[in-house]
Amino acid sequence: MRGNVVDLAVAVVIGAAFTNIVNSVVKGIINPLVGAIGTQNLDNYSSCLSSSCHGTDGIRLMWGSVLGSTLNFLITATVVYFLMVLPMSRFLARQAERRAAREGAKEVVEVTELEVLKEIRDALVAQRGSGYGER
Hints:
By secondary structure, this protein is mainly α. The protein contains 2 helices and 2 strands. α1 (2-35) crosses α2. The longest helix has 70 residues, at 63-132. The radius of gyration is 34 Å and the shape is rod-shaped. The two termini are 69 Å apart. The relative contact order is 0.06.
C-alpha cells in the first residue's frame, strides 16, 4: 500500500513539472504559429453575442482561451501517450510473451520427464513380471 502512495506522489510531482513544460511549449511555439495568422495570445480571440461589446458591456464569448486550453490538453495527452503509455504497454506485452514462453518450455519439459518416467516404470514392470514367475 505504501508503494502505491509513493508512486502516486511521484506522479503528481512529475505531472506538475510537466505542465510547466507544456505551457512553455504552447506559449513559445504554438502561440507564435497561431500568431502568424492572427494574434499571438489566444485569449484575445473572442466573439460578441450582443450588439456591442465595448469594455465590459455586452456578452463576450472567450473562445480563444478555450482553444488554448484544448491545445494544452492535446499536447499533454499526446506526449504522455507516446512517451509513457505506449512504451510501458510494449514493455508489459514483451514480459507477458517471455512469461508465456517460459511456461510453455516448462510444460514441454514436464511432459518429457513424465514420458521418461512412464517408460522406466513400464521397463521395471516388464522385468519384474518376467523374473517374478521364475522365483
